[in-house]
Amino acid sequence: MLGTETHALFLHLKVLATELETLLHDSGKYPSSSQVHQLRVLIRRIRLGFELFEEQDATPRLKRLGKALGRRRDLEVALADEPEFETGRKQLRRDKKKASLRLTKRLAGSCRKKVLRETHEALDALGRRKVTRLGKGYANIRNGLSRTAKAPSRSAEALHEFRIALRKARYALEALGKPVDPLVRLQDHLGRAHDLQLLRDLTHSSPKLDQAQAKEVREAMKLKGSVIPIAARRLKL
Questions:
Q1: What is the mean pLDDT of residues 52-73?
Q2: Euclidean distance between the first and final Cα of the chain, in Å?
Q3: Has residue 3 got a pLDDT over 50?
Q4: How far apart are CA 107 and CA 35, in angstroms?
Q5: pTM for this predicted structure
Q6: Pick from 68, 171, 65: which is nearest to 116 by CA?
Q7: pLDDT tops 70 at residue 132
Q8: What does the domain layout of the chain look like in residue ranges?
Q9: Which of 54, 97, 205, 235 is most buried by its number of CB atoms within 10 A?
């Protein structure tokens, strides 16, 4: 049986799993851009919930589906951004077509059923565990956020790690029912910088693109010093 402290998170995960089942059913093999985004976010939230229980390896099929959704979503964003920076669309269109085909395979009826079965079985196993506290899971999220925020480098890799840590912190706070408002603006700037880095990686750089990305990074760095301490305090149980 789960302890009282963990019961709310477990119920939160069950609600998310139900939402996943509904959304997978509604989207079918050919999800819209909006459904791709919703599925991607929902899967991230579910996997973060398992990570808080220190069960991050419990849903490998869900992880693979999330990656396929992410690839399709990233290319859609890149295609939407490209006209502003004129970095070339032909390769992006080809890559999106390939990503869409891979995603269709992941969303075939039998694959969807396997994903849902795996998720529900992982939840059932979690419900039988004697977990009374979640301190370590939240501490891992908090420490990851602090570590990546202190990294002196502004390289694409360092910013990517910081963005992921921030996203996990936001989802963890939401699972606790705590406010996330100070994180949202910082996450928006880091997310936009990542989108522009991805466009550069998929096509090529341009002065306009470099300037736009540098501006987003500067705005994120301005917010970092005030936002991270607030998030770290709220992640303490």
A1: 95
A2: 20
A3: yes
A4: 12
A5: 0.93
A6: 65
A7: no
A8: 4-128, 135-234
A9: 235
